[in-house]
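Structural prep section.
Before we set up the soaks we want a predicted structure of the protein with zinc ion in place, mainly to decide which crystallisation condition to try first. Input record follows.
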Amino acid sequence: MTTTLLTGGEVVSATGRGPADVLVDGTRIAAVLAPGSTLLGHDLAGSVDRVIDASGKYVIPGGIDAHTHMQLPFGGTEASDTFETGTIAAAWGGTTSIIDFAVQRTGERVEDGLAAWHEKAAGNCAVDYGFHQIIGGVDDDALKAMERLVEEGITSYKLFMAYPGVFYSDDAQVLRAMQKAADLGLLTMMHAENGPAIDVLAAQLAESGRTDPYFHGVARAWQLEEEATHRAIMLADVTGAPLYVVHVSAKQAVAQIAGARDAGKNVFGETCPQYLYLSLEEQLGASSEQWGAFEGAKWVCSTPLRSRAEGHQESMWRALRTNDLQMVSTDHCPFCMKDQKELGLGDFRKIPNGIGSVEHRMDLMYQGVVTGEITLERWVELTSTTPARMFGLAGRKGVIAPGADADVVVYDPRGRTSIGVGKTHHMNMDHSAWEGFEVDGHVDVVLSRGEVVVADGQFHGRPGHGEYLRRGLTQYLA
Ligand code: URP
Ligand code: ZN
Ligand code: ZN
Ligand code: ZN
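Run finished without errors. Recording the tokens verbatim:
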């Protein structure tokens, strides 16, 4: 068992900050001590195996990205990060746990989907990983299978009001799944967009020759996100099931969530860095010498990037401050341009949906601290502490406290991070959705359960170090 002392840093939690030394014994945090403390007269720095100097830096709990899709089969291809490459990229960026989505598609058995996901991940992850379960075909078998999820350590599952024929559930299916979830204490995660309506608009656009990636954003109108969010809230309310709305991008959808929360409903919302920084006009509407207007394919994801003129991005930041939204995950779902996004050349409907960001979430969100959008404590809360509580990992993850797993990041506020291919890029993608982003702040050292996985600009971890996280029920409903 290795002992490590992190000295001289400022420990930041969701509720405060202060100078402290952190003692790690094996895989766990043993003590958080006044700076320079001795233990029974012993100089600690002289008694431990390893001292990490965190002077002038923040010491924060490792990030938890509760929304990733490694190796997701989608649109005739598969997300380009494996559990190995994706979790190594996560580690580089200060994320020490991911929660990925095991997939059952219409016509498949939930048990088979889950077993396949364990097979993909086991022995390959560089940081810890848990699963949510996607239920893409709610029927009697699937409802029965939900009963086994809690004992598998899977306490949340995702439904889709979008993607007819692939993952889609109609209102009757949603209602039945939510009734079951209410019984079992499972948290329902909802992809809230009106898929059937979107498909009509998308077909009309494509048939009239409007085939560029930009029209992906036009077809997926904010009204269809607002409407589905409202419907999901009402269906959940009828059943008594708590609801977590994923990848919220429309300010009108935030207003639905805020209204439900004000009315005392157990409704939660997540947004992603892309909805805070990127837009319909600048990214989906982008054009380049290499790709022409197909450049925008790099940012085709659902829900889509929204219009900056309409003010959605500002509204997301505000919602993060006011707790109308509680978390920031990435929805990491990377596809290369070559051979993958390219499938949609000439028809935006065939572009595989997704953006890769698992490596950059902590840096991108720290930028919100630099610009004054959020406080340092809120940064930790949104990226680590709340994900741990929301998804049944509280006590183990998301805090720097005795007994918690020693997932620790030393973050240098005076450092700089240049994001882009050939710079900080470890995700398995041929481009970066964040190319050219220069941010203040730098992930210097990363510990995953007491092991140094990133330090001195080097990756020191290994695939297989990451363990499967059996999760408990959400702590928000205790
Ligand atoms: O575009 C996205 N978000 N791709 C991943 C699948 C999903 O809906 O989360
Ligand atoms: Zn989704
Ligand atoms: Zn997703
Ligand atoms: Zn640095």
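Observations: The chain is about 30% helix and 25% strand.
Flagged for discussion at group meeting.
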